[in-house]
Amino acid sequence: MHDIKLIRNDPEDFDKSMINRNVDPISHEIIKLDKEIRSLKTQSQEVQEKRNSLSKKIGLILKEKKDPKKIQNEVKSLKTKLINFENSINEKESNLDKILKVLPNLLDKDVPIGKNDLDNKLIKKWGQIPEFSFHPKDHVELGEKNNQIDFKTAGKISGSRFVLMRGDAALLERALISFMLDVNINEFGHEEIMPPYLVNSSSLTGTGQLPKFSNDLFKTSNDKWLIPTSEVPLTNIVSNEILEEKDLPFNFVAYSPCFRSEAGAAGKDTRGMIRQHQFSKVEMVSIVKPDESENELQRITNCAELILQKLNLAYRVVMLCSGDTGFSSKKTYDIEVWLPGQDNGKGEYREISSCSNCGNFQSRRMNARYREKNSKQIQYVHTLNGSCLAIGRTMIAVIENYQNLDGSISIPEVLQPYMYGKQKILL
Fold first, then answer.
1. How far apart are CA 147 and CA 161, in angstroms?
2. Integer Cα distance of 144 and 151 in angstroms
3. How does pLDDT run across 211-260, given as a tens digit for each residue?
4. Domain assignments of the chain as residue spans, ordered by start
5. Which residues are catalytic?
6. Which of 58, 121, 125, 210 could join 316 in a cystine, given CB atoms 3.0 to 4.6 angstroms apart?
């Protein structure tokens, strides 16, 4: 949610930011509604003051044993006016709220201007892209041989864009989950959370998925939604709270399944596990003071990178351009891992983690604040989130990067303790 005062003070800058995010200028409409609301509130207050004054006079008239009917009728009339004012204010505030809730976050000044992922800024590369003495296969071909990565059975049970894991494939997924959680807890010092997988509309509104992206979500009954990411329940831990400065920062981590109804762009990623309706992630969420959020973004990005480094998987980091930055984020780093089996064995980088600083955008929507230690002033916290990592895509990366000529998959050393000591598997 946006601070109306900032829009009021610099509408041109606000519109410029919206245009950079491929959103039409709208400050004029916002300011017009805001002026109307403030004017109505002023008028309402004046009527209320007049009503209060007349109400006092009624008592005096009664003491003097005079007829108060005329003033009583006037008070009654003023009450009707107040009700009308209240209805008008509520209607206009509702309209303003609807506008503000579908507008994306303002961007950091260093975010590059661009339309799509082609305009993202390369920050760094890490690791060596593996060379094979044979034509590398993708995870689908490697996993379907013995049906351990089983799309056919999953399709029978659930439909398209689902997968059923068997045997060593299921073990590998569980190993990755346990490994990522252990590193997050023991090395990064994050507090593990086991969140609910169903949330209410208020929680999704707080983090920015609602109302704009309802079509990308799975809805159940009784105002419940399946989570698209554990960012939603983790961030909402502090919703409608006033925290104490001494208790900050909060650094949460959680494993969860994630559910998204999005179909992907124009049939892209229809093969394999790249984009599914159900997938797993280990997610980081940070709740920090405003002056700490930029450093925290760098820290959680480094955390996600370290997981890939421990797995010895080549990757690159890009800063998303204005047109590619997510709705709630003001600045995002994407980490893209090298997948040698993609594009018919030519290989390509694909997103495996997205680390975002949302500033006070989410905290305003969910009313999450903290009390400063010295001044006792109440401020909005800053919220951040990052994948550490997407399990399915990490599994793809391990399978494709560690494949052997005979079709077997070598297990990275750090995963072997979680795989009962297995050094190779045959999917």
1. 16
2. 8
3. 999 999 999 988 899 999 999 999 999 999 999 999 999 999 999 999 99
4. 4-101, 117-425
5. 260, 275, 351, 354, 393
6. 125
